[in-house]
């Protein structure tokens, strides 16, 4: 995958997250971004570390492929952007969820490269594997972790 090439057809799959808050909160999220126009055989893995406000804690976000086959969400891009644009971008993630084993929740995401908004969207209510209950709003940065082979199945690819 060429990380310098712009795309506007990004999809995201939350791989996992861990967080804790007792008024002041911190969390780490790991997610894959996929663009069919750039490469149909790989995705780009990012991490997001943030701090903010929240209550509760969780270890969640892992996919339940036998229960939820479509684990990818379309990213409503403000304009086309490249993987390198997201590396080091500031952003915010809001999350609310509850569950033991299977967790239901929603995750909202935003990314800015300076004053340039890359994306800003409210995620869908979703089902994933997880343990805990909490709500948080975090500010932090996205960081590139590498290229991975995690891609949507052809049945669910946009």
How would you describe the overall organization of this protein?
- With 158 residues, the protein is mainly β.
- The protein has one domain.
- Helices cover 3% and strands 65% of the residues.
- The protein has 1 helix and 6 strands.
- A 6-stranded antiparallel β-sheet has the order 3-1-2-6-4-5.
- The longest helix has 4 residues.
- The radius of gyration is 15 Å and the shape is globular.
Summarize the structure.
This protein has one domain. Helices cover 3% and strands 65% of the residues.
Largest sheet features: 6 strands, antiparallel
Order of helices and strands: EEEHEEE
- Order of neighbouring strands in the sheet with most strands: 3-1-2-6-4-5
Q: What percent of the residues sit in helical stretches (DSSP H or I)? A: under 10%
Present the secondary structure layout.
Elements (H helix, E strand, L loop, with lengths): L9 E26 L7 E20 L10 E2 L8 H4 L3 E24 L2 E7 L3 E23 L10
Antiparallel strand pairs: 1-2, 1-3, 2-6, 4-5, 4-6
Question: What key phrases describe this protein's structure?
Answer:
158 residues; globular; 6-stranded antiparallel beta sheet; mainly beta
């Amino acid at each position: 995958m060429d990380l310098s090439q712009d795309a506007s057809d990004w999809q995201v799959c939350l791989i996992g997250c861990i967080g804790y808050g007792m008024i002041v909160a911190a969390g780490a999220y790991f997610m894959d971004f996929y663009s069919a126009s750039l490469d149909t055989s790989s995705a780009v893995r990012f991490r997001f570390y943030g701090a903010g406000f929240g209550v509760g804690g969780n270890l969640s976000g892992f996919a339940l492929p036998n229960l939820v086959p479509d684990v990818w969400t379309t990213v409503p891009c403000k304009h086309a952007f490249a993987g390198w644009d997201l590396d080091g971008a500031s952003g915010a993630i809001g999350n609310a969820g509850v569950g033991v084993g299977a967790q239901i929740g929603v995750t909202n995401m935003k990314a800015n490269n300076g004053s340039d908004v890359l994306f800003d969207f409210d995620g869908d209510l979703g089902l994933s594997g997880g343990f805990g209950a909490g709500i948080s709003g975090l500010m932090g940065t996205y960081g590139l972790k590498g290229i991975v082979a995690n891609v949507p199945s052809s049945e669910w690819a946009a």
